[in-house]
Amino acid sequence: MKLNRRQFTKAAGTGSIALAAAWQQACSEVAESGQVKTETVEVLLDSQGSRGIYQEVEEFERLRRAVGSMIRTQTNLRNFSVDEDEQPSTVFWRG
Predict the structure, then answer these.
(1) Which residues, other chains included, contact 1 with Cβ-Cβ below 8 Å and sequence gap of 6+?
(2) pTM of the full predicted structure?
(3) What pLDDT is attached to residue 87?
(4) What are the φ and ψ backbone dihedral angles of 64, each rounded to 5 degrees?
(5) Which CB contacts under 8 angstroms, 24+ apart, belong to 27-33?
(6) C-alpha–C-alpha distance, residues 15 and 11, integer Å
């Protein structure tokens, strides 16, 4: 799903929808260009509250790179193939 600027701005104005839309936008940006735009990270931060230490340019840039890295890791994990007969690494027993 690709959002244009108007759709993205409209979605960003509403609570949890803003966070989901911003995350989807960030995933699209990483898929297209390999990095997350500054504006998208700002929306993600603003939807969670105060920016805190991320008001500093150096820390904000570190966060932007970390978000991109996290999205690439998420994509790699989701694309990892597991055999149908593979046993789970953790088994929960009722006792």
Answers:
(1) 24, 28
(2) 0.68
(3) 82
(4) -60, -45
(5) 27/71, 27/75, 28/1, 28/2, 28/3, 30/68, 30/71, 30/72, 30/75, 31/75
(6) 9
